[in-house]
Amino acid sequence: MNALLMIMPAIGWGLLPPVVARIGGKPANQIFGTAVGALLSALALFVFYHPHISIASFLIAALAGAFWVIGQIGQFIGLKNIGVSATMPVSTGMQLIGTSLVGVVIFGEWSAVSEKVLGALGILVLIIGIWLTSIRDQRSGKKGHDKNQVNTMIMLLFTTLGYIVYMAIPRGLSSSGLAIFLPECVGMVIAVLMYVIVTRQTAIFKESASWLCIAGGLVYAFGAITYILSVNANGVNSAFVASQLAVVISTLLGMIWMHETKSRREMMYMIFGLVLIVSGAVITTVF
Fold it and tell me: Which of 32, 35, 123, 152 to pair with 212, CA 20 to 30 A apart?
């Protein structure tokens, strides 16, 4: 049972990108539906589980949820611009590097020299993995596509900071993961509504894609809740490393569901890059 629980987060988080990409719509449709779906799941969980959380912790957790929106919007824009199989390895690798550095600088992790050496090695492996998955064949007449890819990578670099803050904030709270899930989702929905209003995209409330993307929020919540349960059952390191298989699931499903084609050379680099990204996660987390 513990082994099955360990892979459930990867399934949920791995399904999110291809599910919303398959549904379609604009990034605003996708982020709205995902946030609403996550909130509905959190409310359903609250009916059966009544966690105790202080007002201060609730507000801080809601702030973390707002930062998640920044990262997720960037990811959805990436899906639209360069596809699932190109976006997810880069986004995941950047998150792993960022959270590792935050752990060292802010939370004092990797205190021993051996931990610093292995941690630096893990980050180097992640960087190489990201680079390999981003390699594309040179094709005539594709300069515009190459520029779009570079711009999207830069955008992902900055928006991933939202993910990093989202993952860092709860580490400073004493409340359990299940207790902060509802306030995080409340923060997500508030941030999404602000984003939609400020960017003048309120028409999405009437578009079917927005409501269909609630399915994305449900699979995201499935991943988040089972991850919390897996941490309790299997420990943080094992649960975290297993959850990183999500990048493999999302990348492969992006090619299957969205018919994202790659040359033999690109496929070889992508597979090797994915192996390095998962290996980097293991090195920075376990050793």
Answer: 152
